[in-house]
């Protein structure tokens, strides 16, 4: 059984909520099929933990995407998730990247786009600059601008795991945040190896053993790619058939690859004729 889980908790004597996420299988599924340099793996791990934490703050069913873009050697890093904690992600970069590269080194003049797409209702998009030293600080700035709720985030990644924590003042509260500041100071003592290696209950006990904490049942987090042979066939159908026929004449097949999971879908001339006849392509090759 996967140990990738998101935990939500409340403090009984303070108007503060918390989240804790620990990830391994989903993280490895995202980076394992790509030959990413270490700094990109680290970045995607932090981004994955952050997306899970933010997904848990949503009050709707739907999707969330956190996308980093810039004019540096990394042009894109994105994690997409939903309210069921199903995640996928990818990064695009050029050249050699140092293991200790900063956000500014990676993205140059960069920005973060957070897109919320509810199943029902209006799509929302928020944008903040990548002008802080860490991804966590950039996300805190997003909350300060869009949610206007005091929020602190901690993100950690190792070779195989990613983890994160979030503290936030409850929306109904404002003004006196003394308890929030106290709990923030306690949470800031967390060490990377503790959050990455210890059970969530042990982490919470170490941090808050003098507090009354109500811990809710955890939610599993998983990797899920939305690509399929059917979706690839639908994409082919949007291309002019003469162009498709030209590719078939040259190569004998149409190949559609997925950036997220590296799946490869292959269509021959018979498949293509079926697609353009609005028939399902036979699932003979992948």
From TrEMBL:
Keyword annotations of the record: Chaperone, Cytoplasm, Disulfide bond, Redox-active center, Zinc
Localization: Cytoplasm
Xref: HAMAP family: HslO (MF_00117)
Cited CDD domains: Hsp33
InterPro entries assigned: Heat_shock_Hsp33, Heat_shock_Hsp33_C, Heat_shock_Hsp33_N, Hsp33_helix_hairpin_bin_dom_sf
Entry similarity comment: Belongs to the HSP33 family.
Modification(s) after translation: Under oxidizing conditions two disulfide bonds are formed involving the reactive cysteines. Under reducing conditions zinc is bound to the reactive cysteines and the protein is inactive.
Pfam families: HSP33
Function (record text): Redox regulated molecular chaperone. Protects both thermally unfolding and oxidatively damaged proteins from irreversible aggregation. Plays an important role in the bacterial defense system toward oxidative stress.
Name of this chain's protein: 33 kDa chaperonin
Disulfide bonds: 225-227, 258-261
The keyword Chaperone appears for this protein: yes
């Amino acid at each position: 059984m996967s140990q990738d889980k998101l935990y939500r908790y409340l403090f009984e004597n303070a108007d503060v909520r918390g989240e804790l996420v620990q990830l391994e299988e989903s993280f490895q599924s995202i980076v394992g099929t790509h030959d990413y340099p270490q700094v990109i793996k680290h970045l995607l791990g932090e981004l994955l933990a952050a997306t899970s934490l933010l997904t848990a703050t949503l009050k709707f069913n739907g999707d969330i995407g956190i996308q980093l873009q810039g004019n540096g050697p990394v042009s894109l890093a994105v994690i997409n998730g939903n309210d069921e904690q199903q995640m996928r992600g990818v990064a695009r970069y050029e050249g050699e990247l140092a293991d200790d590269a900063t956000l500014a080194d990676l993205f140059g003049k960069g920005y973060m786009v957070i897109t919320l797409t509810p199943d029902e209702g209006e799509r929302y998009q928020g944008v903040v600059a990548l002008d802080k030293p860490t991804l966590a600080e950039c996300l805190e700035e997003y909350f300060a601008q869009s949610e206007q709720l005091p929020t602190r985030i901690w993100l950690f990644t190792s070779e195989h795991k990613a983890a994160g924590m979030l503290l936030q003042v409850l929306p109904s509260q404002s003004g006196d945040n003394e308890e929030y500041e106290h709990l923030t100071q306690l949470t800031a003592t967390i060490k990377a190896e503790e959050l990455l290696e210890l059970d969530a209950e042990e982490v919470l006990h170490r941090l808050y053993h003098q507090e009354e904490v109500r811990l809710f049942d955890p939610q599993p987090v998983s990797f899920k790619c939305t690509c399929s042979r059917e979706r690839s066939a639908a994409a082919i159908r949007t291309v002019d058939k003469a162009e498709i026929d030209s590719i078939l004449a040259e190569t004998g097949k149409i190949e559609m690859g997925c950036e997220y999971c590296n799946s490869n879908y292959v269509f021959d001339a018979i498949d293509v004729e079926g697609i353009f006849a609005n028939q399902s392509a036979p699932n003979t090759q992948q």
